[in-house]
Design goal:
The complex is a heterodimer of chains A (171) and B (440). With 171 residues, chain A is mainly alpha-helical. In chain A, 77% of the residues lie in helices and 0% in strands. Chain A has seven helices and no strands. Chain B has 15 helices and no strands. Classes of the chains: A mainly alpha (171), B mainly alpha (440). The interface between A and B is medium-sized, with 22 and 29 residues.
């Protein structure tokens, strides 16, 4: 078990990386660079999951978001005409409104996350968690099996619907 | 220090892997030459044995060219991504019961996730080169990897159902307890993974991302020197990774063939089959000594003797470890693991020189219309067989034989369905071509 200082070190490293990557992604003008920074932010978030001993969440974050969804993003970015997209008007005109909203939202988060807030009662310190991949499976396929299957079927319906709509325009 | 040994293993792997990749390239050239009735590299060292080292030196001192209109940051980053992800996957591969950097609880998922990130090296490198050949190669690669990852993952699930764990180490231990490798329980799963892993490593007949007759070299067109060799290293490292996954999940990992046969040598605790590796190395060493005087050049004779000596030392290590029970499982396990990996890679080479390259639509059709449905059927079949065996107490032969027949039946049906669809489409195209064009 890693010492406490190392734990904090990992957390602040990944958290800082995530924030820096997210900012660079938003302010970048090159779409592919933005995609690369988004990948970095997603990987840093996965690192935080790992630091919290949620190894299944960590690996699913990498497989699904970085290995699946972002590959499709990059694929689509390469298909569209980048030069046209770069010349178009950017949506970063409302600086002051955005700043105000950010401050309000940040304040809300700070208020929720203050040290004596009730939402942190009853949480287990991450260092004490056992390997929990099996527990994820138990809760998905035994305890919450019906909601899980309903969600799966809804996703399947959405996918089939999307394929149908794409086909109809084609015909 | 609990971290000392894993760090040492990591350094060993990072140092040995480029050498291993170089010698797999030499093996590839030699096998190709043999299948085409040629000699292959013969000049550098006896029978070209030092050729990989000469090639590596040449690549290292070549000029490193960055195209003027390339996106410099991503152009420099992309090969690093490829090679880092390829090397990172080795952290969870069990080379033996002892020689494993980390036995992760999610070992298999970790390897799959990390190797699925390798596609970014290809895609970003192809985009950053600012060349049409590179971009086309990168797009083909992205589509191919995303398609075949699904089939490969579904094929691996059949082994997971049998082993009941995601940890690479306990998967091998499960095969030890079952008394048979999982390839005998789920041969269809192994077959699907074999095909999908060739596609995932961009090897022929699925090497469309770098098809040299169409795309020069695909995503690698604009790369040269050291960066090009990083891509090359990543490709061969990935081959070893997929071979390692197949070995661990289907071919019994570090287990010896006939692991449940314990014939002892005349009352000693040494098992007869454990002597085989030592005998093999001894025979190779002896052959090297026998060939040494027949080499044409003095220096080649010397190198041949040195190679023979190396194999004799290996034979001595394999034989000596039989008498030291503490080192025996580690050394012999690593031998069997690497031997199986090399057999798997030999199959890759063999396919490369046997099959012509697929067309892109054929590749997609094979992945989506044949391998993925077949993989789903295979998972279903293995699951049913497990239920029949565990809940209803069936004999393993009957349960797995029945579901295997069912899976093969589905495969035959899929093939005939695809054939009929192709015929219909060809007939429709012929009818459209024959009909007079002035319809409107």
């Amino acid at each position: 078990m890693a010492p406490m200082a190392l734990q904090y070190g990992f957390f602040y490293f990944f958290a800082g990386l995530a924030i820096v990557c997210a900012i660079l992604m938003v302010i970048g003008r090159n779409v592919v660079h933005s995609a690369v920074f988004l990948i970095g932010a997603l990987l840093a978030t996965a690192g935080i999951y790992l630091q919290l001993r949620a190894e299944f969440l960590f690996i699913v974050q990498i497989i699904l978001y970085v290995g699946g969804i972002m590959v499709l993003f990059v694929f689509v970015i390469m298909l569209v005409n980048l030069d046209v997209a770069a010349r178009q008007r950017q949506f970063s005109k409302q600086l002051w409104l955005a700043l105000l909203l950010t401050i309000v939202l940040g304040g809300q988060l700070m208020f929720m996350a203050r040290r004596d807030s009730p939402i942190f009662n009853g949480t287990v310190p991450p260092a004490a968690l056992p390997p929990n991949t099996g527990e994820v499976a138990t809760s998905l396929f035994q305890t919450y099996m019906l909601p899980f299957e309903i969600a799966s079927i809804m996703l399947l319906v959405a996918m089939v619907g999307a394929v149908l709509m794409a086909k109809r325009r084609d015909a | 220090m609990p971290y000392l040994l894993p760090v040492f293993y990591g350094i060993v792997i990072v140092m040995v892997l480029p050498l291993l990749a170089g010698y797999i390239v030499l093996l590839e050239r030699k096998v190709m030459a043999d299948m085409q009735a040629r000699l292959g590299p013969m000049r550098v060292g006896p029978h070209g044995l030092l050729q990989p080292i000469a090639d590596a030196l040449k690549l290292l001192i070549k000029e490193d060219i960055v195209p003027a209109k390339a996106d410099k940051m991503i152009f420099l980053l992309a090969p690093l991504v490829s090679v880092t992800m390829a090397l990172l996957a080795y952290a969870a591969l069990p080379f033996g019961p002892v020689f494993q950097i980390a036995d992760l609880d999610i070992g298999l998922l970790f390897i799959l996730a990390i190797s699925s990130l390798g596609v970014y090296g290809i895609v970003l490198g192809g985009w950053a080169s600012n060349s049409h050949f590179s971009l086309l190669g990168a797009m083909r690669s992205a589509a191919q990897l995303v398609s075949y990852e699904t089939a490969a993952g579904l094929a691996l699930i059949s082994a997971l159902l049998l082993g009941g764990s995601l940890s690479m180490k306990s998967l091998v231990e499960a095969q030890d307890q079952a008394g048979a490798w999982f390839i005998f329980f789920a041969p269809c799963g192994f077959f699907i993974y074999l095909v999908a892993s060739i596609a995932e490593t961009n090897r022929a007949p699925f090497d469309l991302p770098e098809a040299e007759s169409e795309l020069v070299a695909g995503y690698m067109t604009e790369y040269s020197g050291f960066r090009w060799s990083l891509y090359f290293l990543a490709e061969y490292a990935n081959m070893i990774v997929v071979a390692g996954i197949a070995t661990t999940l289907f071919l019994g990992g570090w287990l010896r063939p006939f692991a449940s046969f314990h014939g002892h040598v005349m009352g000693t605790p040494i098992e007869i089959l454990d002597i085989f590796p030592a005998l093999l190395f001894f025979a190779i060493g002896g052959y090297c000594f026998w060939r040494a005087p027949r080499q044409p050049v003095q220096i080649q004779k010397l190198v041949m003797v040195l190679v023979g000596g190396l194999f004799l030392v290996l034979a001595a290590v394999m034989f000596g470890s039989l008498f030291v029970p503490a080192t025996m499982p580690g050394i012999h396990g690593a031998f069997w693991f690497l031997a199986k990996v090399l057999v798997y890679i030999y199959a890759f080479l063999w396919f490369r020189f046997t099959f012509p390259r697929y067309r892109f639509d054929q590749l997609m059709k094979l992945g989506w219309q044949f391998l993925i449905p077949l993989a789903l059927t295979n998972v279903l079949g293995v699951g049913i067989a497990q239920i029949l065996r565990q809940q209803l107490g069936w004999n393993a032969f009957a349960a797995f034989g029945l579901t295997l027949l069912g899976t093969i039946g589905v495969a035959a049906w899929l093939i005939s369905l695809n054939d009929r669809r192709d015929r219909d489409r060809a007939a429709a195209a012929a009818a459209a071509a024959a009909a007079p064009a002035g319809g409107d």
